[in-house]
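[job 0412] stage=fold_complex status=start
inputs:
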Amino acid sequence: DAMVIQNPRYQVTQFGKPVTLSCSQTLNHNVMYWYQQKSSQAPKLLFHYYDKDFNNEADTPDNFQSRRPNTSFCFLDIRSPGLGDAAMYLCATSRDHREGDTQYFGPGTRLTVL
Amino acid sequence: AQTVTQSQPEMSVQEAETVTLSCTYDTSESDYYLFWYKQPPSRQMILVIRQEAYKQQNATENRFSVNFQKAAKSFSLKISDSQLGDAAMYFCACNQAGTALIFGKGTTLSVSS
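[job 0412] stage=fold_complex status=done
writing structure:
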């Protein structure tokens, strides 16, 4: 089945130790998104790629970076995680970036910062 | 700016009963899309139903239907014949051209047998 896969499902890191989260998709979608979701809150968009074009949300901290080496993969890098970065990180894809395009979500990576 | 408001943090329903989750939104655009997403505990978020603003007819997907009131900017989700598997957090979301998908804060639905 075509899908969005995130690895790892659970990640534990230490305060200030860089961490990378991975997302892959078999949908061949043009757009990939990264969201941060804190407990019982709405997902918050961090950034998205339209093909190779990177689009950062205005309020996304510089501590968060992303890479998309090819259509299938996208990575979220947190350069110096703080305690406030502990959250669920969701990857999503959509065929295009038009207003009606459905986003397909991965299962998420739960990040714990010690 | 777009906003999406879900005024019910928690709702509960008994199996086989019907429940309605509320959502209001604010947008200055005339053309936009509205969505309901379901996020079960420890499982991925999936699309439940989608509504195009320029379509008057309310969208339906099996047991799920919406009541879309464009003038009132209201987009409620009705779940009929509720099942235990419907227990989840439900997010209402709005999307218009050139903007990100904006989510409400979610409603946690519990289903009892």
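[job 0412] summary: Chain A touches chain B through 20 residues (CB under 8 Å).
[job 0412] exit 0
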